[in-house]
Amino acid sequence: MPDPAILDRLRAAVEKNFEAETAFLSELVRFPSLRGREAPLQDWFARQMAGRGYSVDRYTLADVPLESHEKAAPMVDVDPAGSVQVVATKRAKEAGGRSLILQGHIDVVPEGPTSMWTHPPYGGVVRDGWLYGRGANDMKAGVAAMVFAMDALKEAGLTPKGDIHVQTVTEEESTGNGALSTLLRGYRADACLIPEPTSGTITRAHTGTIWFRLRVRGVPVHVAVADSGTNAILSAMHLIQALQKFTVELNEKAKADPSFGGVKNPIKFNPGIIRGGDWASSTPSWCEVDCRIGLTPSMEVADVQKGIERAVEAAREGDTFLANNPPEITWHGFVADGYVLEEGSEAERVLAAAHGQVFGADMEERLSTAVNDTRYYGRYYATPALCYGPGGEGNHGFDERTNLELLKKTTLSMAAFIADWCGVE
Amino acid sequence: MPDPAILDRLRAAVEKNFEAETAFLSELVRFPSLRGREAPLQDWFARQMAGRGYSVDRYTLADVPLESHEKAAPMVDVDPAGSVQVVATKRAKEAGGRSLILQGHIDVVPEGPTSMWTHPPYGGVVRDGWLYGRGANDMKAGVAAMVFAMDALKEAGLTPKGDIHVQTVTEEESTGNGALSTLLRGYRADACLIPEPTSGTITRAHTGTIWFRLRVRGVPVHVAVADSGTNAILSAMHLIQALQKFTVELNEKAKADPSFGGVKNPIKFNPGIIRGGDWASSTPSWCEVDCRIGLTPSMEVADVQKGIERAVEAAREGDTFLANNPPEITWHGFVADGYVLEEGSEAERVLAAAHGQVFGADMEERLSTAVNDTRYYGRYYATPALCYGPGGEGNHGFDERTNLELLKKTTLSMAAFIADWCGVE
């Protein structure tokens, strides 16, 4: 637990810098860092960190041997060479304290129809204690928090005794390859903190995620021959219904999962993008659906993939079009395991103490039915990986916003955690 | 019935010009005259007709008062000023014989994935007695036939005694406004022949067509709240199913139609284009479906539109997303009546005689469950409108092709019809 005097100094520092932190977050939000378009933000971020005296490594996904790792995910529709990663390192003068990775993703998901937003999605507008915009909460607020937690230590005249890597990655929303790349690039530490917007809770476990693209294509039977199932759009609907049934089965199996057994229907299936056909008066010959499905940490990705294939194959029988035209399945993104943060780690104990001091309450835990990047550090590289950060609402929806009071508090609890984990001089 | 000697001269002329006719059709097919992109073909066609000595009127849909006519259809996604029409007129030296409109549409529907075609869709390739390509059959073959039927008369030294307008129009596949524009522009005649690919049959009646765009948009309920109906794509599927049920009702009513009562399910519903969502892992907030539905000639367009609105409204009740987010319906194209060619017209009698002479068999009749342009001339301007022409297969599908033997025969029967209807000197 940090020394109360140190905490007071950190609190004063966070307070002093908070206007700058809010401006920094607004600036982050103003970059429309959609998939494949993250480079301008990363270049700006790299300059910011270099200006703060970090040693900065800027590289792209084409610079690491992704394909060498079994947990790398397929990247479709995007060029790895355009996907920029930044690792900003502050090395301890002497190796002594524990090292730490602070990691955040700066890729955001599409904002949808702009007219549905109260404030412009890339405006970074502040109103009544909230900062609005796509990515404001998920998770540029966390990125601002980790940078300003470090700034607070410096402002307070505290120098960490362990090496610290401040990393901003891409691909969290589609594959996870950005996080994996930092490990393949060689960055390691004694613990990892990813400040996703958890509203000051610790993430005990998250489900896995699989992405797949269904492609229905073929020569349709003439409408004169049959009144249903002769049209690629209708056949895609038929496949979606088959996958809804498969999801019910998966949720039945999920009742046996040690982490998610008590959660009602933790497996979510989402047909997220659909496109098909060329003309209102022509029977559509093609339809594509981009889908996402979850899995519990105790399920294997390969087993769920086989289940998807079986469900699609079985659905062909009941459909005139599909019977003659086998649909294709493309694994076009996430093939992500779930992850459970084992209880009792020293890293979690130190974070809980810092949280308790700042919030005056216990750090509660949550289960997440969406994936995050902790799995790479925690599951494959034996690094305790804590998912804990600020909070808000509207992730992936309209009027996404982050709460500035929570941002300030978690910035402080993170600063206190860093001080206590690494030690300071 | 044409004089057998005249028919022989016409037959020889059609035969002599047939290589040129085939080349002319290939050239027509090589223009990718998709909606909004018809102008290059029309300009070429106008020059061709001017070169043959016709008086050519080239104008666009922005040049006629479309909105003044209650049967004009809404045009969405396309600029009327870019939609070029051509009327090529050959006037009789003295008004004496009956006048005639020959009309064909040169707009084509999208070709779909090119990889599904055996021959390039805009190649105009000839193989084993067939000419391949998008629009080759529907209905550039008919356009070639009407031009070369007229050429055959000239080649045979026969001059029609009535005025003849050879018209190529757009928008047949989407609104019908091209055909309507020729009437608003002032062109009239004692009969109209539209050589759609009917394989030498006369079209006794065609169904009407309505286009509409369903737009589902709103703030989705979070996936945590409900497991179905919280997603714009799933809600669009729900609407499609409601419209399938509405189609069953319409087909029940269609049993009372004097023309289509004996046809099984003459009303076809087609969801032809779908698009929705932005990200596999975000609940889609929007989905659009472009649809087409038919109606019998005895049904009113306005009644079917009301039925569609009622079906969509009723479907909202069973769907969490739609209950909170009313879908929009946009009438974005066809609002087309059906049409019945009344039996017993002199024009049909003359055509049947010409057909019988050329084919050595009676002209059979067909019922069409798709719309064509005859309704404007026949239903609103009291002009007997005959839909009769060459034939092939693959309209709106892959490997569309027209049969060259049928093209030659119908070119001759059309030439014989023109000679007999207008009279020649």
Automatic annotation (TrEMBL), chains A, B:
Listed cofactors: Co(2+); Zn(2+)
Keyword Metal-binding: yes
EC number: 3.4.-.-
Gene3D superfamilies per record: 3.30.70.360, Zn peptidases (3.40.630.10)
Statement: the UniProt record of this protein carries the keyword Zinc: yes
Molecular function GO labels: hydrolase activity; metal ion binding
UniProt enzyme class: hydrolase
Keyword tags: Cobalt, Hydrolase, Metal-binding, Zinc
InterPro entries: ArgE/DapE, Bact_exopeptidase_dim_dom, Peptidase_M20, Peptidase_M20_dimer, Peptidase_M20A, YodQ-like
Record-linked CDD domains: M20_ArgE_DapE-like (cd03895)
Signal peptide: none
UniProt domain Peptidase M20 dimerisation: residue ranges: 205-315
Family indicated by similarity: Belongs to the peptidase M20A family.
Name of this protein: ArgE/DapE family deacylase
Higher taxonomy: Bacteria, Pseudomonadati, Pseudomonadota, Alphaproteobacteria, Acetobacterales
